[in-house]
Amino acid sequence: ESWVWGWQIQIFLSVLAFAAAMVLLASSDLHWFRFALAAALSVVSSLSFANGLLAWPIGTLVLLVAVVSDRPRRRAAVFAGAWTIGGALMIAAYLYGYHRPGHTTSAGIMPANLPEYVRYVLIYLGTPVGGFYRRAAAFSVRCV
Predict the structure, then answer these.
(1) pTM of structure
(2) How many Cβ atoms sit within 10 Å of the Cβ of residue 38?
(3) Contact (CB, 8 A) for 67 and 80
């Protein structure tokens, strides 16, 4: 049902661009045109959905594997370095001027309230089994 909602398309676009970029980077015949196309697809993935920013560190890992296994190691290392620099620039541009919304909680709240956090996670995971009754939802996860 949610696939027909217009804003969901951004998630599919991000995943498609990410997958296509990784296929291009993992190609055994990687050259500058494929590299530039993979970078452009990673920019699309990054700007479509925030999870798309993971294309840059994952792409670096893909290219580093090529450095270890590929015969022209120097070229693969140049690609890995260029990808890392491009990724750092993209992530910096994405996060420039970012400020956390005021209504969100601090990340430090979880260790301070660990039992309450564990209860929240149990309720969150158990809701499909236990319905919207908090005790049933939390209990259903503990029983599994």
Answers:
(1) 0.71
(2) 27
(3) yes
